[in-house]
Fold:
Amino acid sequence: MKKEITFTLNNEKIMVEADPKWTLLYLLRDVLEMTGTKEGCGYGECGACTVIIDGKAVNSCLYPVMEAEGRNIVTIEGLMSRDGELDPLQKAFIDEGAVQCGFCIPGMIMSAKALLDGKKDPTDEDIKESIEGNLCRCTGYVKIIDAIKSVAGGR
Amino acid sequence: MGGSYEYYRPATIDEAMALMEGSGGNGVYIAGGTDVMVLIRQKKLAPACLISLRNIGELAYLETGGGLTVGSAVTHDEIAKNAFIQRSYSALADATKKVGSLQIRNVATMGGNICNAAPSADTACPLLVLDASARIAGKGGERVVPLDEFFLGPNKVALEKGEILKGFAMPAFGEGTGSAYIKHTRREAMDLPMLGVAARVTIRVEGSEVGCRDAMCTIDTISNILKRFEDEGLVCEDARIAMGVVAPRPMRAKKAEEALKGKVISEKLLGEIGEIAASEAQPRDSIRGEAWYRRDMIQVLTGRAILRAVDRVIRPDDVIWPQRLW
Structure:
């Protein structure tokens, strides 16, 4: 039996009918058709599905959809401004060549965003910790870390 | 997606227990969900309903006056980043900051880690050496169980159907107490421990105070410091050692603890203590490591965990530093 839930998604209050057995990821991708958030493993191992809930990076594949009620959720779609301007983090990932196949990138950027929202000047260790749950099989992480650093330092 | 279930978000413990009773015992409590949601997806769990503990304020406390009490719904990240816990209950901070990834630690709770009762549960060893007891809410009211009696076996804990683990209470430890947890893994993040060892010691120096007494101390190696203290007698007054992934449940190395108590700490003694701890362990061959290797490493890591705990007493201001390289 579906139930109504209300929450804030990318700065917009929305109301949706959701089946209690859904995960937040299923609602985002298969119902709301916001496919920027990726499904990798589905077990909380890879971080491709990372979204920001009440300021914290969370695996949406393990997040019961009913827990979204009343919370503030931001996905990769929420980073771009209304006039199509990319977020500084998105620009940095492009400029630093941090993107290869791109599948892990929405999750990477959301993890980095959660870090930078809470800490303007993170250390290298902070950056590594923030993306330790995001697997990338292309880049070896160096350019990803460079991209995050370039935004953090305000260079 | 698999079978259907209801999802409840009670606001109080009583409400949650009533929902569980109403489900005829076919419901499952869910906190952070990082274990439960995986089991459902793997079709190893098919609950009639999920009863969420995430919105119950009574389970989200963290109090630091006269010891430490932590609600079961407090997340790993909250514990790992708490400055008081880092300094005074260091083993617990060591363990919580090494669980899964930040995304996991942001939602996974310590109550869930303990109730899941995996032999590899990272927070179990620290709680054992910190003399924690479990506060359990049931129909008849609250009861308290020492953590050592809480673990019954793999995925089995001393909770009756419907009961809820409210949280943990740990006593205040006096001056000269330090603790540490070492998680032995193949990689830095997103790994279960091949072994886990926690230690807590209370130490005193014959006739003088414990602590770093000269500038050299902050950069000195721990073995040099131990040698210097040796002439004066760095006595271990009290000790706890706990080991994970060496038995069906997390366990204390009680013979090793007894052998350590009252002795002057030296590198030679720590080697002996490690041997005793290894003899108490009953590790198995598994995908993460073979028994012989685990037994060898228990010996090494026990000494190391004790050293790190001692180091934290002698150089408390270094607790917040990045890990030393030994």
Notes: The CA atoms of residues 102 and 138 of chain A lie 9 Å apart.
